[in-house]
Amino acid sequence: MELPQSRLSSLYKDFRPLKELNPDGYIANIGTWKEYLKSRYLKGNCLFECGPETLQELSRDIYGIPKSLDVVIDSLLEEGYLVSSQDFYGHTMYTKEYSKFIQWLGVGKKRFLKSRTSEEGLYLQKLRLIVRPNVEAKCKKVADRINENIRDNAAGIMDLVFPLKEFFQKTNFFECVKKEEKDVILFYLATYKKNILLGDNFVKIIDPSLASETLTENDRRIADLKNVLFNIKSQVDKMESERSEYSKLLYTSVKERAPKNVQRGYLQARKLAEKHLSRLLDYQTNLQEIKGQIELTITNEVLVSTLSDVNQTMKSIKQYSSSVEEVQDILDDLKEHREQADEIGSLLAGTNESIDDNELNAELSKMDQQIKKSIEDPEKRQDENSDVLNKLAQLKIGGQKSDRDGLTLAEKTKNNPEQPVSEY
What we know:
3-stranded antiparallel β-sheet
């Protein structure tokens, strides 16, 4: 982004009086400068060092230095986009916000740093400011890598303590953090995010399930051991590279029939590299064995502590438990109470008046006859209807009726039994 040419005069002059005379113009100038500073100085950076040099960098032949850049920086500080080093390292970057009424009373009013030191010349104070949004974004990336590359795979304290060099390597720290931002990011992770604990040139990843949330002397010793191992590994890699290089040179010198003294020199250098490499590998093996013993000791300590806790738990449970004889007595008492309850229930049930069996049988027989009768009556009525229909079929009314007519009448009557039948 570049500053608009048509507004350079307004942007470079002292526009502070516009706050009262033309508030809209005042706000517009501040907004334009903010976007320009974010684009040129703040984008992707966690640090912003401003001062007289900044004014000189922004100076133009026609307009000179910007006369009100302090107003822009103060505005960025007030809104929290920029944070002073004093607030950042004083653990006050995130301060409690009080209501305007409380601030009007003079309580809890946040006092912002002023970047102007004078009214003339290179007026801007030399400051080292923290770009808060960029710090937060980069710390999130590092925290995600800590979780993925370290914490998710950790099995004990040995997997949580690292010398700084190994920590940077495991998290690919400098892929997203510039070297000059290292201290800012580490401090933020330790102080504001509580992801790590910072020791003297080492880091401890915070994981309450595996280790204490404080730095101990054992943490320092583990870090020293791992630091030596890390350095030896680096030397091993270097010696292997040198041996490989001398082997290539030796092969080339022999192939091209170089002078014998040259060939001997390369051979001697390769043997020397192999000698140093062999010694370094011995050191590395010994230290790895010590590291393994420490891990085993820590595991044993955890196991003993766990067994001790289990033992105490069992003792406390046993304290409230009864002996076998007491349990048997309890069961006997329960059985006796149950038998008494059954006996009382039987007695209570016997107070009801008994019903004579002969009376019950007579009532059942009566019900059985009623049911049979209800079944036989429809059949009897159907037989009687059939007899009537047959007689009707044999009647002669006004002449001879055919069997077909009689059957037809009988069928109709059968189909509609409720219709009255007349002989005339």
